[in-house]
Give the backbone structure.
Amino acid sequence: MADVALRNVTKRFRSVTAIDGLTLDIADGELTVLVGPTGAGKTTALRIVAGLEKPDQGEVWIDGRNAADLEPAARDVTFVFQQYSLYPHLSVFDNLAFPLRSPARRVAEPEIRKRVEEVASLLRIAHKLANKSTQLSGGEMQRVAIGRALVRKPSVYLMDEPLSSLDAKLRGDLRVELKRIQQDLGATILYVTHDQIEAMTMANRIGVIDKGRLIQVGSPRQIYEDPVTLYVAQRFGQPQINVLPAGLLPNGALPPGAVTVGARTEHLDLRKDGGGEALVEWVEHLGDQNHLHVRLGAHRITTLTPPDTPFKSGDRVAVGLTKPLYFDARGLRVRSA
Amino acid sequence: MSQALTTAHSVVAPSVLSKRIAGAIVILYALVSMIPLAWILMTGFKTPPDSIAYPPKIVFAPSLEGYCNLFTTRTRQTQEYIQSLGPPQTICDEITRKRDMVIAGPSNYVPRFWNSLVIAFGSTFCAVSLGVLSAYAFSRFRIPLADDLLFFILSTRMMPPIAVAIPIYLMYRKLGLSDTALGMILLYTAVNVSLAVWLLKGFIDEIPREYEEAAMIDGYTRLHAFFKVVLPQAATGIAATAIFCLIFAWNEYAFAVLLTSGEAQTAPPFIPTIIGEGGMDWPAVGAGTTLFLVPLLVFTVLLRKHLLRGITFGAVRK
């Protein structure tokens, strides 16, 4: 296991700046998740750590060594790709054994067999070892891909949306499994996703990235409760944070510079009130909870209510705020004094 | 959906009638294109008089005379001399003696056929090997002016190869490559390599580069990854390309006539020169052509699974 550090890394592709001055530390044994939309530069960051791309500026340190001149094979990292990572012409066993048979390693066959079987049972694919890799379901394929990273026992695992091509149920299962394996092994993982639930549930720390810039790094709780920008606030929380003009709802004195208010369910205070200024438009029943859609003048507010909610569509309600988040005109967080 | 909407573009399964009509057209086309082949096959088993009979004989007594004549040279002898020989050793002896001739020795067919094998397979191997390496480079690396280079490579196919025959002839004479197998292999490789690069680039472009990247992170060099990961997955494309190259090199006539006359002569210029007594020996030509088809047929049948998938250029992978 090892730690990883990116120091002011910049990468351009022709005129596009994929990564802009990225500095990030990943501690030994920590699972760090990079979250951002498509094209934010998450994958480029991973590829730079792997050595598949050379940064235009900045440095990558792996286990205390500057990796600038290290070939991908010499970095002792593994990469789990979003898809395509299994060799269709090899069996599951040979796919798992592939990294161990590399010229850089040349592990003896009995040892290979032992390690492959170990990993296969860990990932519950032991009964599929003789299969062709094309005869697997999507979930099994992705488990083999993760297994191929595990057999190596590398210092650092790099994972590029490894679960995003799976259906929701499998994604949930593998998410838990992956986190369990990470904790058992004490693995250092840099994990890229655009899925906020994966980020929140798996990460020790989350890095939010947008347009090549790292906007905030922190524990899932910090990121959720204390976002530094409106952008970060909008990426986390279900339903998405409600963005309203500051002063629309009465909430005492506004911090100086505050232009917008971000209000999640926990910041909203709804009361049935015949004279209330807001109108419940409809109630979405999700089973374990309800989404309540409320119209307030020209603005819409979405919030969570328990399944036995007293609200129904057509109700007039009064809306109050409790310690909401304030943002200035550029979307930066403004803290109340 | 109403019946009227099931037009020619409909995804509804075709009716039995339209399937039958389509089938009949395909069979008809196949039969028409096989007539020349069938005629060649038949001619090979005719006797020389039958082969030039008018009206042409569809029904005839099969004979191996064509095959005997293909593999041998014969001399005319007197009846007394033939009778003085012992009993005929082979069926060819027997057939030949009936025409008042004896076998003088083997013909050049076997060495010419061997030349064809060496030159066609040799040049195919070279063209595909060079092609797959350059296609990989074009596909994976940022090469300055890559598009122009690719166009330039293709442009060598834009004129008939025979247009450069005379310069090549003169060049080959100077270089001592005239009438050598090496010269022909180089020439066919040069003609085929552009086709190989273009075909193979398409196939390699389709192989996601994540495969090699994964291998390279897993401790393989790029070269290792190329052999372990890219080549096996490009097998379909390589097989299809090899067949196209082989067909060209195997059937090439114009350069072969011009540049090979003796030692390195291939079968295509040799076969039409098989002359019997009193004109072309059509049964021998038919026999030679029939046998000439065999290697290509075997090669294509062996690779047909790849070929079918290859010609559709990955449109129906998996």
Notes: Chain A touches chain B through 26 residues (CB under 8 Å).
